[in-house]
Design goal:
The complex is a heterodimer. By secondary structure, chain A is mostly beta strands. Helix content of chain A is 0%, strand content 57%. The chains are: A mainly beta, B mainly beta. At the A-B interface, strand 5, strand 9 and strand 10 of A face strand 4, strand 5 and strand 9 of B.
Chain lengths: 111, 115
């Protein structure tokens, strides 16, 4: 059973557009929600993260929106650039150490 | 300083053979994690270490999988009697502690192919 459901599986956006990736979870015990960016042949790298007591966090062109009541959170990439083309993973932290990852979204930004 | 390194970067083995995958975490990082990334799937948590201890091994897929960490640094993930379903990218990550909000730094992974 997928504890963190991520959509869409793939996404194509024009340069300058907004990329939106969504994640939903069931376990209300999750207490930390990071997003990772992964380029081919590389390990994932932390992009931005949010705690459940905050509804939005913005860092540059990247924003997380968090809806605790709906148990959903999303990543928005403003002014998307070809260099943003990568696979994005949402994750949720359970307990002290365990991270549950979504299945990933492959983003392609067209020049 | 140097990031997390893993070796080998690629490993091709025959079904039934044993393999060892190595992870060198960032110096001073006490927490170390192993994940498995199968094609088209997210990252599957396998095991974590705090220092040399692995309090929870429940993420390991079967008793063919084992891991150890020595000197609070290097970790080895061993898969015995490999099966084709073990083919995946095995990722290692380390962090300064396990405290919430502390960044996990991932290595580039070892791509394992079992023929």
């Amino acid at each position: 059973q997928q504890q963190v459901k991520q959509s869409p599986q793939s996404l194509i956006v024009q340069k300058g557009g907004i990329s939106i990736i969504n994640c939903a979870y069931e376990n209300t015990a999750f207490d930390y929600f990071p997003w990772y960016q992964q380029f081919p042949g590389k390990g994932p790298a932390l992009l931005i993260a949010i705690r459940p007591d905050v509804s939005e966090k913005k860092e540059g062109r990247f924003t997380i929106s968090f809806n605790k009541s709906a148990k959903q959170f999303s990543l928005h990439i403003m002014d998307s650039q070809p260099g943003d083309s990568a696979t994005y993973f949402c994750a949720a932290k359970e307990g002290t150490y365990k991270y549950i990852f979504g299945t990933g979204t492959r983003l392609k930004v067209l020049a | 300083g140097a990031g997390v390194s893993q070796s080998p970067s690629n490993k091709v083995t025959e079904k039934g053979k044993d393999v060892e995958l190595r992870c060198d975490p960032i110096s001073g990082h006490t927490a170390l994690y192993w994940y498995r990334q199968s094609l088209g799937q997210g990252l599957e948590f396998l095991i974590y270490f705090q220092g040399n201890s692995a309090p929870d091994k429940s993420g390991l897929p079967s008793d063919r999988f084992s891991a150890e960490r020595t000197g609070g640094s290097v970790s080895t993930l061993t898969i015995q009697r490999t099966q084709q379903e073990d083919s995946a990218v095995y990722l290692c990550a380390s962090s300064l502690t396990m405290v919430q909000g502390v960044t996990q730094y991932f290595g580039p992974g070892t791509r394992l192919t079992v023929l």
